[in-house]
Amino acid sequence: MNIEAILLAKDSFPEKRPDNKVSRLLETLIDDDQLLQICPKLSLFAYEDGFEVVGEECGLDPPITLCKPCKELMQNPPPIWDNDGKRPQSWVPFHKNISQLGDCCNSSQGTCRICCMIWNRACILLREIIYPSFSHLNRIHRSKSIARYMDWVGNPLTVGLQAWASRSVIFRVNLGILETDIEPQVHICRLDSFKKEPKDGIVYGDNPNFSLSKSTGSPATLSQIKQWLDSCKDNHSFCRTPLSKNGRPTRLIKIQDGGTTFSLKDDLQDDVEYVAISYRWGSNKKIYKLEKPTLQSMKDKNPILLLPKTLREVCDVAFKLGFEYVWIDRLCIIQDSEEDWQREASKMGMVYSVATLTIATSCAPNEDTGCFRDRKPACITPLFLTSCPFSESRNIAIYSEGSGEDWRRIRHGYLKERGWTLQEWLLSTRVVHFSRKQVYWECRQSDASEAWPSDLKPNAIRPSAKPPFVLSENRQWSAQENWGRIVEDYSGRKFSFDKDMFPAISGLARVMEELADGQLGQYLAGLWGANFIQWLCWSTAWKVPVSLPTEYVAPSWSWASLRAEVRFAPFDNIDVVKSPELHGRVMFEPEEYLAELKDGSLTRVSTIDSYAAIRDGWIVLSGHMKRVWVGTPISNDNPRWGVIPHSETPNLDDLNSGNLDSEDKLLPFRGENAGIVFAKSDFVTWTSISPLTPIYCLPLVKVRVRAYKRTEIHCLLLIPCASQEHNRTLPARSTPYASNEFERVGITMIKMRDDCWDGYQKWISRSPREEIVIR
């Protein structure tokens, strides 16, 4: 509607109009004649230079629809730079602003083929990669706007276009403000990347698909899934043996009458083939599910329309792929029976492992929205050209660059946030991901997408990029390394009920124990008995939100006692993970254990599942405990990081000479040579702990960082039980030990020169070795 039409409509508004913010704002703008000023400014953000089919006159074959800036790019390619766009002069103007670039993909006049690829990649970067990392900044996390990202964060967003023939980047597009700009613009840089190896972490397969359908629910998509499934069954030997070899589901849903009805079946053959569903529950408690009152009626035929849209569409896919049976948790577990829930939850790992196929509804935020999505093929499919002006090669495909990690985030969509879906993904032999823009295939031996149906090969060690099955850096499979990766991913996920924390990972724990063949030892509240002291050295990730569960979940020494993403390489923002020995490792390698596990006890909710939820637990460690105090936080934006101050500690000369004449001196070093001693709280700010509450340091492991000729001591920080009121620890219960009971409150790291070690031993030995009960 133009300005005149809006002004003429002003007096025709009915007297009683809806009272909302939009209508009130519109009336205010009309009354004050502000639209006369706003509309011309808004026109600057619209692309109005038209579109044109460009072909041989610009060296393009076959012809494609382009906007004016892209046509000029083809007619007059910019100079080639070999610096990856690091010099300001390598960037040339492309679009006047970000909004005009976006308008090229959504204009009623047409769409530009190249701009569609650039814009789609920018949106994926923001929604799937960048914005999740700003979850602690609500105003950024809630917005999906590229312009707002530029305004709030201040960093330009760079998108690359790659050539399939050379597997390398040929253009980089900068969406943001360069140093020479007065207003935000879009710039482009041409690179001499045909001579370089790709650095993006993914190698695309052969034969890209240049003709995608307009919906992920189309017959063409289903046909592609069928091809993937048949090829995997026929050719992939590694996919023929599930991780969990024994058992079958108690119940399955049978799809009947051409996919129009379903019924619950419990008289199943041992070799029954079925599809398992991985999806996200919604908040609607009235949605149809299996309960005691509906158990008998569900064994009769029921119309498929009883099911919510997401589950209906998944059942339709399974039926058209040739499957009669599906497993859906809400329909195969009696939801109002605690006994049935406990029994079936313990089988979840087996259910997904034995399933012939798992369908993951990655694009669906709940069970009501469906898993099929309309799409613009031009934004997804590679651009095939037999010739183009900036390449001497013929028959090349151009596509937006991406990394292996990007593909994993994109295909998981909404499911990557939920706790239960991690083991559903990791334990499944084959998974089809219905994402927003396309469908992805994943099995033990290949990854593929609709745009690249032959294979996507992440530059990770096979088989698969799935954490339980990747090899460590020395190419030897490490159960400890892989469990650490699993927990780091799992701990940051969300749960509707905190009590599900252990049941939702029990299948993975069971499989990992079998694969490890005794390497891991006994399972102890998310940790393992082998190298248990080292497992205690977890910490919360840098700048992540931390909260406490609403009910007791685990002892304070377990990572599961918090709702937070954790790391097993402590202090992940400090140079401990940048050293040559430790870079990229999940678990560090201790030189010596300074504490010893003497005893422990766990009381579980279920008597049939040793991996189930926990009612109570404690451990007894033997070690030297020292009292400390924690000073000012490192920064105001993360008050959980404090510093154990040096001001009252002996200097290095005192330490080396053994001249330590006071037990009140907290730690045996100070000064630049010793380094700062960081104290990282698990869940509270250090200033919130009463000054009267004693804090104790319990050294656990000694680590040598040879690159810096430095020794590090990783320690637990403890306070007496009941010093803080929360659900992390329970009221003290009787134990065989007369010692006082403590709870974990954080972790710290003592850094010292190698030549200070003897002095440290003299200092710590002044506190007698004792047995400490930790709940």
Question: What does this 3D model show about the protein?
Answer:
- The relative contact order is 0.08.
- The chain starts with a helix and ends with a strand.
- Helices cover 24% and strands 22% of the residues.
- Mean pLDDT is 77; it is low at 1-18, 136-142, 194-203, 457-467, 470-476, 571-586 and 646-675.
- Helix 5 (98-106) packs across helix 6 and helix 14 packs parallel to helix 17.
- With 775 residues, the chain is an alpha+beta fold.
- It is globular, with a radius of gyration of 30 Å.
- Strand 31 and strand 32 form a beta hairpin.
- The strands form seven sheets. Strands 25, 26, 27, 28, 29, 30, 31, 32, 33 and 34 form a ten-stranded mixed beta sheet that branches. Strands 12-10-9-13-11-14-17-18-19 form a nine-stranded mixed beta sheet, sandwiched between helices.
